[in-house]
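> @MW can you paste both from yesterday?
MW: sure, first one:
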Amino acid sequence: MICREVVLSGQAKMSTYFLDNFENLDPRRKRPVVLICPGGGYEKTSEREAEGVAVQLLAAGFHAAVLWYSVAPARFPQALREAAAGVAWLREHGEEFHIREDRVFLMGFSAGGHLAASLGVFWDQDFLADLRKEKARELRPDGLLLCYPVIDFLQVPHEGSLENLAGERKEELRARLSLETQVGPQVPPAFLWHTQADNQVPVKNSLLFYEALLEQGIPAELHLFPRGGHGMALATAETAREQRHIQRESAQWMELAKNWIRAFD
């Protein structure tokens, strides 16, 4: 395995976990890569939604990386620019690390899900133009995997995330950062999962984004689990801080996500 730390800018860095190639085992193989955005309400980045998740993706034969993006007092769009830079870096180094440049996925948990979905809707915007070397397509994820994501700041707002992300511009940016209102044909296919019992980021966040994707004819897959609260991560003992983070039904999401990625081939 090839592991390295990549500094993107200031606070932001990526921890990479790349499976190596060998002469006697398909030396020209290229693999999909999943860039993981941990949650934390744009106040921190949670280790529970990072390396343990990456290991599961590696076991499926995918590359993985974790984006340690800037949080408060950094404000929008700094973290978004870092996510875009991370996607671009993975494509630029595709040959070096055996990455399929057309299979760069972005996975996000909670507020990290908002960050991932933000790049999904804003990747072609002018405020990211200076990150492009040739074309906006370099910044576009090929698919989004959104795990109990923060999406909406209008109907079921997670005020803490909005406050940390927008600061004094909170009311000015509230509608723009409600991502279900920004969905158009530019958004890549998406996989979402949520628990109906989530009392911190209500399941309606995923429902609103899913419905917006359907209206645009964008392929989307949504899985809802009746039990389990917020911040489940893998929903197994591997990523549990408390017993409530272990939930067998919700733990199915990782296998479902792996199959969703495989279906791109």
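MW: second:
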Amino acid sequence: MRYKVKTINSVNEINWENIPVAKIDKVMWVKTNKVPTAFAQMVFIKDYGFIVRMTCLEANPKRTCTHDNDDLRVDSALEAYFMFDGERYMNLENNANGARKQAIRYNRENKKYFYNNEFGGFKVTPEILNDQWRITINIPLDHLVKLYGNIKKEDFKPGYRFTGNFYKVHELVGTPFEHYLAWQEIHSPFPECHLKEQFGEFEIIA
């Protein structure tokens, strides 16, 4: 599965109604009919970086966590995973309050949180409406290159490819709230969103 990341010239040109949608609709591990509709969108802004918007059609999402690095498993959460060097991936997890868990990882265990590093992590803007909520994540290239250390800003142009995934989860195990939804389905006998070899593909286009 491939998502084509549209290139635009500035933030002011973003019209989300015209940006392709990645449906987060693959139900995994817990079979239930009670799952919300969720989707993600992503754009590449020349000379700036990426902006990701994730939306969930869910009224009154559970949002008890208010601080970065709180245990977001107890809340309704949206997650974006991106791998830019073929080895390490970022996972950006957020609830409707905008509480963040941001880490760069080789796998689930080998990780380093960076929401409190020198650039303060990636900015997350939450928005709660009557029947839905969304988060917007800003990923400037300057910060991305600094975080990885082995990628170049000039590589990010039409034709550039990377991998990743989008998830909508509520990990209260054994409760009616528990669910795991993905854009790119993950094949595992148990809940495991960190299988980077099963990520989908992204491509920057003009």
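> thanks! The mean pLDDT is 96.
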